[in-house]
Design a protein that fits this description.
This protein is 24% helix and 23% strand. By secondary structure, the chain is α/β, with parallel strands linked by helices. It has a single domain, classed as Rossmann fold, CATH 3.40.50.300. The strands form 2 sheets. The protein has a 4-stranded mixed β-sheet with strand order 3-2-5-4. A two-stranded parallel ribbon has the order 1-6. It starts with 12 loop residues before the first helix and ends in a 13-residue tail after the last strand.
């Protein structure tokens, strides 16, 4: 199984060629749903307490607090992609790159 770290290349062509194999996991967040967002598609919206509990239970590959809200990619989101035969890609905010990975 493969785990690919993807940071917006200047030339998107390689992504377009292999796009059908790569999928970004749906991240969890503790912030409220914004207009036009769809729960489970844009994010998994959880309470701050639920997020903190999941962090304590090591359920995230990566996580970060940003502007007073938590964001993170769960191991289960990555596992779901891999079980479907695809390659997971992390779609990270630039400030998240300074976070600790489990």
């Amino acid at each position: 199984m493969h785990l690919v770290w993807f940071f917006s290349p200047s030339d998107p062509l390689p992504v377009l060629v292999f796009f059908s194999f790569f999928f970004a996991g749906t991240a969890d967040t503790s912030r409220l749903v914004r207009p036009g967002e769809v729960a489970g598609h844009d994010y998994h919206f959880v309470t701050k307490e639920e997020f903190e509990r999941d962090v304590e239970q090591d359920r995230f590959l990566e996580h970060r607090e940003l502007k007073g809200h938590y964001y993170g990619t769960s191991f289960s989101a990555i596992k779901t992609i891999m079980e479907s035969g695809n390659v997971p890609v992390l779609d990270l905010h630039p400030q998240v790159c300074a976070c600790s990975f489990n």
